[in-house]
C-alpha cells in the first residue's frame, strides 16, 4: 500500500512538474516575444529615424544652398542695376559728344570756307596793287608820289593793307587748326566711349547670363526641396505604419501590393531575363565612390538611391520606377532566405541592390556617396524584389 501510495504521489509530482515546465516555457516564450518585438521596434525606429534625419539634413543643406544662390542672385541683380545706370550715363555722354562732333564739323567747314575766301580776296588785292596803275598800287605809290613823304605814306598804306590781309588769313588758319584739334579730341573721346560701351555690353551679357543661371538653379532647388520634403513625409508615414504593425504584433505590411509579403518563407522566383544578377552587381560596383546627389540622374556626376538603381538596371534594358517605394510593386517577391545578388532591397525611404555576402551597393547619402560596405540589414527591410 505504501509503495502504491508513493508511486501515485510520484506520478502526481511529475504531472505538476511538467505543468510548471509548460507554464515556465510559455512565460519565457511570451517574454521573449515581447523582447523580440521591442528589439524589432527599436531597431526599426533607429534605422528609419536615421534615414529621416539624413533626408532632413539634406533638406537643410538644400535650403542653405538655395539661400546662398538667392543671395548671389540678389548681388548680381544689384550689379546689373548699377551697370545699367552707368551704361545710361555713358549713352548720354555719347549723345552729347556726337552732337559736339557734328557741330565741330560744321564749324570746321565754316572756318575753312572763311580761310579760303580771305586767301582769295588777299590774292586779288595783291594782284590789283601790283598789276594795276591806280593810286593804290605799289608802283603808282612810288613813281607818282608828290615827294618823298607822299611816297612813304602810299607805300605804308599798301603795306598796312598787306599786313591786315596776312593777319586775317593767319586768324582764319588758326581758327581752322583750333576746330580741327577740337574735332580730333572729340573723335578720340568718342572712341573711348565706344570702347567703354563695348565693355559695358559684354559685362551686361555676362551678368544677364549669370542671373539666368542662378534663377534656374534657384528654381531647381525649389524642385529638389519639394522632393526632399515629400520623401521625408513618406518616411515619416512609413514609420507610423510600421509602428502600428509592430504594435499589433505583425512584422510585415498587410496585403500583397505593398511588396512586404514574402520576406519570410520560401519565395524564390525563377529568372525571366537573360541577365544574371552578378552582371548587374559587377556593373553597379564600378560606380562606388562616385557622388550622391538628390534628384540626380548620372552615375558619375551624382544620383540618389532610386536614381542609382534605375540607371543600373537601365544599362541592361530593364525599366524601373524613379521613386524608392515604387520598387515594392515591381517584379516578384523574394524571401530573405533566398535573396541573391542582383535582387532589389527596399527600406523605408530607401532602395539598394543586394551584392551577396550580406552586403548592398547603394547611393547612400550626400556625405557617403555610392557605397558597397553596408549590411543588408542596416535598416528595416520592407520588400525584396527580383526583376531579372
SSE topology sketch:
Elements: H1 2-131, H2 138-143, H3 148-247, H4 277-285, E1 297-298, E2 302-303, H5 305-314, E3 332-333, E4 344-347, E5 350-356, E6 359-365, E7 369-375, E8 383-386
Antiparallel strand pairs: 1-2, 3-8, 4-5, 4-8, 5-6, 6-7
Word description of this protein:
- The chain has 388 residues and is an alpha+beta fold.
- The chain folds into two domains: 155 residues, Helix Hairpins; 136 residues, Alpha-Beta Complex (endopeptidase fold (from Nostoc punctiforme)), CATH 3.90.1720.10.
- Helices cover 66% and strands 9% of the residues.
- The strands form two sheets. It has a six-stranded antiparallel β-sheet, with helices on both faces. It has a two-stranded antiparallel ribbon with strand order 1-2.
- Strand 4 and strand 5 form a beta hairpin.
- It starts with a helix and ends with a strand.
* N/C terminus separation: 77 Å
Number of strands: 8
- Report the CATH architecture of the largest domain: Orthogonal Bundle
Number of domains: 2
What do the pLDDT scores average to? 76
Strand composition percent: 5-15%
Count of individual helical segments = 5
Strand order of the largest sheet: 3-8-4-5-6-7
From the 3D structure, determine the CATH topology of the largest domain.
Answer: Helix Hairpins
CATH class descriptor of the largest domain: Mainly Alpha
Residue share in helix: 55-70%
Q: Strand-and-helix sequence, N→C?
A: HHHHEEHEEEEEE
- Radius of gyration (CA) equals 50 Å
Show unreliable segments: 1-13, 15-41, 249-261
Categorize the overall geometry.
rod-shaped
Q: Structural class per helix/strand content?
A: alpha+beta
Q: Characterize the largest beta sheet: strand count, sense, and whether it forms a barrel.
A: 6 strands, antiparallel
